[in-house]
Design a protein that fits this description.
With about 280 residues, the chain is an alpha+beta fold. The protein has helices at about 1-20, 65-75, 115-125, 130-140, 155, 165-170, 275-284; strands spanning about 25-30, 35, 50, 55-60, 85-90, 95, 205-210, 235, 250-255, 260, 265, 270. It binds calcium ion (CA) (2 copies).
Length: about 280
C-alpha cells in the first residue's frame, strides 16, 4: 500500500515535471547587418543608421500554451484573464476584462500580460525581449516594404483591423480587404516576411525591451535597447484592433509596463549560440 502511495506520488511528480517542461520555441537566426531605422514623421523620426549584431528571434508571438507552461512551472503569474486588470476592446470602447473565450485558444498569442510578465517568461526560457532596433531590423528583413513582407497585400500578410472587423463594429480606419479574423488568429496564420518571421505586422502588438523616448535623437546605434527613457515601454507591430498604419515596420507606440491589453503580447529574442557558449565557458 505504502509502495503504491509512493508510486502514485512519484507519478504526480512526473506529471508535474512534464507539465513544467520548457516549451519548444521556433527560433529564426537573424544575420548581422546595417539598416536605416525609423521614418520621417514623429515619433518614428529621425531616420538613422543602426548596426545590429547576429541574434535569434522567435518566428511567432508567444502563445497561450507556451506561456501556460511557465505558469504551471511556477515562475510566471497567470495572464490577467478574469481579474479585471486586462483592458478589452469590443471595437468601440475599452473596458477592464474578462477576456472573451474567442481569444483563449492554446495556439493564439498570449495577451493580457504586462511587460514585467513578458520579461519573466523570457527569463524562464533563457531568452529576453528584443530591442526595438532588433525588432524593426527583423520586421524589415532587408526589404523596403511598408509592412512586414508586403506593401499592399496586407490581408494575406497581417491580421489588422480589416473589412471584417469594420462590418462587425465599424467606426474607424481599417484595411479595405477581409483578412479572415475579427480578433486574434492562431500564430503563424498569415504569410511570413522574407526571413520567415510571422505576424511582425499585426495579430498582437509586441512589448520590446526599450523604454519610451518620443524621438530617436541620441538613440543607440548598435542595436541595443534604449533604457534611459520611460517610464513607458515600447510596443511594436500593431494589432487586430488597430488601423493598418499601426502595422507599418517603422511605427512605434508605448504603454505603461504594468498594464495589460487584449491586443498586446510579445515575442522572444536571444543571442546566437556562439555568444551563449562563450558566456557559459566564462562562468565555468
Ligand atoms: Ca483582422
Ligand atoms: Ca505581432
Amino acid at each position: 500500500m505504502a509502495q503504491r502511495a509512493a508510486a502514485a506520488a512519484l507519478g504526480l511528480l512526473l506529471v508535474a515535471g512534464v507539465a513544467a517542461a520548457r516549451p519548444e520555441i521556433p527560433w529564426v537566426s537573424i544575420p548581422a547587418g546595417q539598416f536605416e531605422m525609423g521614418a520621417e514623421q514623429t515619433p518614428h523620426a529621425p531616420v538613422h543608421p543602426v548596426g545590429v549584431g547576429a541574434f535569434e528571434l522567435s518566428a511567432t508571438e508567444v502563445t497561450f500554451a507556451q506561456y501556460q507552461a511557465c505558469v504551471d512551472a511556477g515562475p510566471c503569474t497567470a495572464p490577467h484573464l478574469e481579474d479585471g486588470r486586462c483592458w478589452v476592446f469590443d471595437g468601440r470602447t475599452w473596458t477592464p476584462g474578462p477576456l472573451p473565450e474567442d481569444f483563449r485558444r492554446p495556439d493564439a498569442p498570449v495577451v493580457c500580460v504586462t511587460w514585467t510578465q513578458a520579461r519573466t517568461f523570457a527569463d524562464w526560457v533563457g531568452a529576453r525581449l528584443p530591442s526595438e532596433a532588433e525588432w524593426e531590423y527583423a520586421a524589415r528583413a532587408g526589404e523596403a516594404h511598408r509592412f512586414a513582407g508586403t506593401d499592399a497585400d496586407l490581408c494575406r500578410y497581417a491580421n489588422l483591423a480589416d473589412a471584417r472587423l469594420s462590418a462587425q463594429v465599424g467606426g474607424f480606419t481599417t484595411a479595405a480587404c477581409d483578412d479572415g479574423h475579427v480578433f486574434t488568429a492562431a500564430v503563424g496564420s498569415y504569410l511570413p516576411n522574407a526571413w520567415g518571421l510571422y505576424d511582425m505586422s499585426g495579430n498582437v502588438a509586441e512589448w520590446v525591451e526599450d523604454t519610451w523616448n518620443p524621438f530617436y535623437t541620441s538613440a543607440p546605434l548598435d542595436g541595443g535597447a534604449w533604457t534611459d527613457g520611460g517610464p513607458g515601454r515600447v510596443t511594436r507591430g500593431g494589432a487586430w484592433s488597430e488601423s493598418p498604419m499601426s502595422g507599418e515596420v517603422a511605427a512605434r507606440f508605448w504603454d505603461e509596463p504594468e498594464l495589460a491589453y487584449d491586443n498586446l503580447g510579445f515575442r522572444l529574442a536571444r543571442d546566437p549560440m556562439s555568444a551563449r557558449e562563450a558566456r557559459r565557458r566564462r562562468r565555468r
